[in-house]
Amino acid sequence: MSAALGLVLALTAPGPPEQAPRLLAYAVGGGSVLAFVLYGLGCALVHSWFSRNANWAVPALVPALALSLPWFGGLLHTVYLENGFYVPTDAIHVSVYSTYAASLKPVCLALGLAAVVLALAGWMRHYHQWIHARAMVRIGVPLMSLFVIGIALAAGLAGAEAAAAQARTTAAAGTVPAAYYGVQGRLVCVTPLGEETPVFNGPLNTARPQLTFGTSGDLVWLWDSQRAESLSVRLEDVAITEARANTCG
């Protein structure tokens, strides 16, 4: 079945003919891994504690996952803003949908790796390999699942730091960085309206564009790529315009 689906995909997918064997290999490999994992999960969960208590365990997992997704998404935004640009997270408005979107990739990867570990345990159960090592399986499978989940979530945090580093490099080159799950930066020119303008963590560089992610009440947070520092000023003290080039003034 996997080979047939891969052949159909290779014949119908757009692209040059030389890509057909690669698409076929990807489809067959992906279908085979999926079948391996699904059958292993079936062997691991059938006639188990989970199958006997699924009527309350599954409904209990749904709200737990619904609460953990925005929390981890908020953590990714915190790593991106505070570790990458020294901008407080509460100074930037991010929608709940963006926090869900930010957490989906690492959380799905973590659950997928945990499913592979559980599938391997299911195959061991299928071939009666854990009869002589039942205690080791009961301890090893949860520990290995927690390990791969931790690795996947740590990879998500590292991805947020890498996205922030890429955004800093792009902003320093005078280009607007790409959005990060609802956090969109803009390059602006800031002009003081008075002779003495109070600036938190100044001075304020008015000759080069500053990166901002929006306003927070009567404050605007800026990131100076030249000093690699964040600063904030009151909106009533400055005039903010969109930067058209790599210089201001």
In spatial order, strands of the major sheet run: 2-5-4-3-1-6
Mean pLDDT: 84
Strand content is 5-15%
Tally of separate helices: 6
The proportion of residues forming helix, as a percent range, comes to: 55-70%
Which structural class best describes the helix and strand composition?
A: alpha+beta
Number of strands: 6
Q: Radius of gyration in whole Å, from Cα? A: 25 Å
N-to-C span: 65 Å
The dominant shape is elongated
What are the low-pLDDT stretches, counting only 5+ consecutive residues below 50? none
Q: Characterize the main sheet.
A: 6 strands, antiparallel
Give the SSE order as H and E letters: HHHHHHEEEEEE
What features would you describe in this structure?
A six-stranded antiparallel sheet has the order 2-5-4-3-1-6, with no helix packed on it. With 249 residues, the protein is an alpha+beta fold. It starts with a helix and ends in a 7-residue tail after the last strand. 24% of the residues are buried. The chain has six helices and six strands. The mean pLDDT is 84.
Q: Topology, pairings included?
A:
Elements: H1 2-12, H2 20-45, H3 49-52, H4 54-85, H5 96-126, H6 134-172, E1 186-192, E2 199-200, E3 210-216, E4 219-224, E5 229-234, E6 238-242
Helix pairs in contact: 1-2, 2-5, 4-5, 4-6, 5-6
Could you write a compact summary of the structure shown?
Helices cover 57% and strands 13% of the residues.
